[in-house]
Predict the structure.
Amino acid sequence: GDVRTSIAGALAERNAFDGRAFAVVTSGEDRPEVLDLSDCAHVPREDLAAAIGRLVRDGLRVLRLGHAGRCFGPEAARELAAAAEEGGAGSIFALSLGGAYLLKDEDYAAIVAGACRSLSSIELRACKGVGTAFCAALTQHYGAAGSANLLELQLEHVDT
């Protein structure tokens, strides 16, 4: 996990973290529990969406994506939500997205609905489109039996 993060960070500093680097960092037999990418702007959307579902199904517990604007779209949100729902309480527990401007309010709500049994930390920074559907999903799903406890909710520079 730490080696992957170090490699990704070094490549991001050189503006060289692209789809090929992403494939290397997210492949392998060791099934990472943490994916922490400071800048994934140059990762193709379809590559990220496919990998997110696979990684969450394989045991990813923490997902931190900075500069996620171009790559984390509705497809990735759907993959994350579906994989987390399949995994139940043992699935992803922390999500941090920075600059995910492709997502709409209903995409954030879908993530909450799918991952509420495991997700206990949500951080959204500079994510446009967070609104009433997301807030309603938090209220509905985190008040339900079988949901995780929402221990941390951090919203910075979000607006609809």
